Amino acid sequence: MNLLLAALLVWIGGGIACLLGGRNRRVAGWLGAGTAVTGSLLALLAGGQWVLSLPDAIWQVNYAWPLPIGRLALSYDGLAALFVVATALITGLAAIFGAGYLQHAPAGRSFGLAWCLYNLLTASMVLVFLSANALLFLLAWEGMALTSFGLVLFDHERPSVRRAGVIYFLATHLGTALLLVMFLLLGNHAAGVLDFAAFSDLQLPPGVAAVVFVLAVLGFGTKAGLMPMHVWLPEAHPAAPSHVSAVMSGVMIKTGIYGIVRLLTFLDSPPAWWGWLLVAMGATSAIIGVLLALAQRDLKRMLAYSSVENIGIISMGLGIGLLGMSADNPVMATLGLAGAFLHVLNHAVFKSLLFLNAGAVLQATGTAELDKLGGLLRRMPWTGNSFLAGALAIAALPPGNGLISELLLFLGALAPLFTAVTPGATDARAAGLVAAAALALTSGLAVACFVRTFGLVFLGEPRSAASQTAHEAGPAMRLTLVVLASSCLIMGLAAPWLLPAMMPACQLVTAQPGDTATLLATIAPLFATLRTVTLLSIGVLLLALCLAALRRILLRGRTISSTVTWDCGYAAPTPRMQYTAASFAEPILRMANHILVARRRFLPPRGLFPAQSTFASETPDLYEERLYRPLFRNLETLLGRIQWIQHGRLNYYILAIVLTLLALLVWKMR
Amino acid sequence: MTELCYSLLPVLAALLLAPLLPGVITRTKAMVAGRRGAPLCQLYYDLWKLLRKGAVYSRTTSWVFRFAPCLTLAALLPALLLLPAPGVAAPITCEGTLFFLLALLALARFSTVAAALDTGSSFEGMGGSREVQFASFTEPAILLALAALAQAAGSTALSDMFRDALPTISQTTTPAVVLLAVALMIVLLVENCRIPFDDPNTHLELTMIHEVMVLDYSGPDLAFILYGASLKLWLCGALVVNLLVPWSWADHPLAATGWLVVGLLVVAVVVGLVESAMARLRLLQVPQLLLGAGALAALGLVLVLRG
Asked: Tens digit of pLDDT for each residue in A328-340?
């Protein structure tokens, strides 16, 4: 625990130092990235120490503080450890990348402030995971929202960035408002004590528990980017600098998942409909998220929608876990939860890798628009190859790590098919099958989505002059990319050793009698499966290399000639004739046109000598179009009616505050 | 040890006999049309010829294009180790092999489509786009169909599924077997780009999905791809054969391998007959048929769950 406290101090101290001494971008970069990496190393060391000591242990720290309610209570258990390790790993690596990345940012930005906010964001995220008191949790939560808001506004001179910042600010605070109500409800039932320890002893009436759970799903779901509360995510994540996008998409949205899971540790015996709710929201997020990702033409926006998809997958896993708990099926519960937790880790690694790749591409070409990129694999081999590793991993293909977590979820979803039919098992079976089918559809579409992105950005011919002259990223950036890409591979192959680390967290949620060893024993047959996956992955790689060698031997001494791509006799192919982002996705989006309505503007060629004709299409976010825009429009008209209160005279405002306080006083005295 | 040798027999048969299946299909079509047709072993001759040739590469392509045929074949070969023959368990049998099969097929698809995009040709991009479009619908269909078998057998290991599912299902709901077989057959047709989804006969440009993606390959690379395609046909066909042939028919592992081969030849003849009797669907209608396959699989699953 001391190491963790030291890490927190390093981050906060480093943040302040950057603010004070960071006028120069080089100094700020060294100082900010240095402290971020030092803090991360300390936190990772703490994680290692915890794994080695006793995985069931809970480290706790309690300090009194002068505020009337709440205490400075920190605790580090299996659940917190999982998220802290992911946060430390990703923020540390992204900081190294950021140090290289920001060297080339346009002048006139406040680099000291950016690094200060980066360090404080890391500190507040870790504090969210460590908090064992609702007030401290909410403070850290708010700190996280504000610091990341500041980071999103790094490029505040662009109007689109300012718009994204405002949307993010609104969304995150609406979510926090729901959480405030949720914690107050819990605190009210815990006789005014806001400690998590008090919450977990609560025996809530089912009605209150249901309200608390729904509030948590809505409030934490907003932060996680679960549909339909996701609309801020595809705005804010692409707007931030790429290393910040990596942190936001890789770990920050996982604080929402953490919140839901932490709440579940307070509530006992979840009813089946909680699981159904998470499975349904997760399935819609996953399917519509990946379809919208396919529809995007901006690399970073596409990655942001893919985060919505992956949060959906994680949520389905939690839903499977809850259904397993309510159906008394420990195998289903453990596999669902373990799959969700492993996917949290995996997604942190490959999504931050992909966002950093996007950053490298953006820096090299000045654009993230898919239709202006192409052929970058030859010009940026490190970036391209590491992107390929990330794409394989996120599309759940061997030998990547995404395959493992989705495999666990599939096995968990189908687990209730193999047990006797009990009253609770019907729900579990039906929801499991829904989740499995949704997961299969999602992974098929994810393959489409990422082979398209990889193909458009890195393969073929450059589609613009900027990508023609692109250059490879600097050494610091390359180092991060290589580390993250190899982590994808290693985590994929090391699954049998990684899975036991998920068990303490599962144990906290399922609250099964016995310790993690008994929980691990329920899924013992799984280890043979995981070992086989590892062997198969290695086998595929080795076999591919052998075949490549065979091919080389076969071609030895033969004529190998180069020519243009065969275009059926067409004499002058140009890069513009290549398949585009929109054309690749069009057939899939057309099939989904009942859900996603594409807007097309088509000016057909007219006359014998058509002068001009244009075609443009875009696929807007359906929730933004059909839910939020009408909602906010109506809200605006409604609130416009009481706008006369906002007249700008300070004395009346103060009067209003005094009157409110008096009213509250009277109400309390009554 | 002998058990392992016996379980490797179907794999050996696949490696040796897979290129025969396209020959059988072509011969069937020729006979229905009243022609004599190409030799049954045409693909073997083609492979032998291609392996001895040099190669031509597009200047646009990178290492991805050159490595993709190796990776595709390397993904399909281990998939053979997951499938049993009716009477012999597969060499790799553990919980979850059903998902390994899906993942390996997806890896093969990823590498083929990536290579197609690497050429920068709009034709090949088109093929890649359609390939991933159709595959995203076959994946839920194949999963639901196999989930029905998994439920009946109480396992997600392909060997156990095929051994135990048929006796269980056929006692209660025989129609389910038919539904699942039809669903798997549609999956076979689309995964291997046969009529009514794609016409492999109209070679090169007019073939809309698989053949168009590999337009730029030549020499040993093309040999790898053609061999891989015949292995994929074998894999999908083996799913159907394993579903329909009960394990009780084979009293010896050799007989089991024999049943598998005979079954696959029948499947190839059926594919040939389908191709003779049908025309290619309009592309826009393909998703409807794919959803139909998914619906059949779901219906089969419901029947199995009820029974």
From this structure: 888 999 999 999 9
Give the nearest partner residue to A578 out of B64, B125, B151, using CB atoms. B125
Asked if B57 lies within 8 A of A410 by C-beta distance, the reply is no
Nearest Cα residue in chain A from B132: A448
- Of residues A519 and B45, more confidently modeled: B45
In DSSP terms, A600 is beta-bridged to A617
- Per residue in A407-437, pLDDT (tens digit) is 999 999 999 888 777 777 888 889 999 999 9
- For residue B115, the enclosing domain spans 2-306
Q: What are the b/e assignments for A255-265, b being 16+ CB within 10 Å? A: bbbbbbbbbbb
- Residue keyed to tokens 């920068």: B120
Residue B118 has its nearest CB partner, among A414, A460, A563, at: A460
Residues of chain B neighbouring A430 (CB-CB closer than 8 A) = none
Q: Of A375, A407, A437, which is closest to B99 when you measure between CB atoms?
A: A407
- pLDDT digit string (tens) for B163-217? 988 888 877 778 889 999 999 999 999 998 888 888 777 665 566 788 888 888 9
- Residue B64 is nearest to which of A377, A395, A578, comparing CB atoms? A377
Q: What is the pTM of this model?
A: 0.94
Single out the residue of B233, B251, B264, B266 nearest to residue B6, CA to CA.
B251
Rounded Cα–Cα distance for residues A371 and A464 (Å): 8
Q: Are strands A72-76 and A59-63 parallel, antiparallel or unpaired?
A: antiparallel
Q: Quick one: pLDDT at residue A524?
A: 85
The mean pLDDT value for A634-661 works out to: 88
3-state secondary structure chain B: CHHHHHHHHHHHHHHHHCCHHHHHHHHHHHHHCCCCCCCCCHHHHHHHHHHCCCEEEECCCCHHHHHHHHHHHHHHHHHHCCCCECCECCCCCCCCHHHHHHHHHHHHHHHHHHHHHHCCCHHHHHHHHHHHHHHHHHHHHHHHHHHHHHHHHCCCCHHHHHHHHHHHHHHHCHHHHHHHHHHHHHHHHHHCCCCCCCCCCCCHHHCCCHHHHCCCCCHHHHHHHHHHHHHHHHHHHHHHHHHHCCHHHCCCHHHHHHHHHHHHHHHHHHHHHHHHHCCCCCHHHHHHHHHHHHHHHHHHHHHHHHC
ipTM computed for the complex: 0.95
CB A313 within 8 A of CB A343: yes
Phi, psi of A482 (to 5 degrees): -65, -45
Q: What is the mean pLDDT of chain A?
A: 89
Residue of B nearest to A450 (CA): B110
The shortest C-alpha distance from B96 to chain A (Å) reads 6
A562 and B56 within 8 Å at the Cβ level: the answer is yes
A36 in helix, strand or coil? helix
Residue A365: C-alpha distances to residues A233, A234, A235, A274, A361 (Å): 24, 22, 21, 46, 6
Predicted confidence band at A598 (pLDDT cuts at 50, 70, 90)?
confident
Are the C-beta atoms of residues A555 and B81 closer than 8 Å to each other?
no
Identify the sign of the CA torsion A195, A198, A200, A204: negative
Contact B45, B91 (CB under 8 A): no
How far lies A263's CA from each of A202, A225, A513, A604, B100, in Å?
A: 12, 18, 19, 56, 35
Q: How far apart are CA A206 and CA A270, in angstroms?
A: 9
Q: Total domain count for chain B?
A: 1
Q: Do B78 and A392 touch (CB under 8 A)?
A: no
Predicted confidence at residue A55, as pLDDT, reads 61
Q: Give pLDDT, residue B205.
A: 57
* DSSP summary character for residue A106: P
Average pLDDT along chain B, 307 residues, taken 10 residues at a time: 86 95 94 92 94 91 94 95 91 90 94 93 88 90 92 90 86 85 93 84 67 88 95 95 89 89 96 90 85 92 85
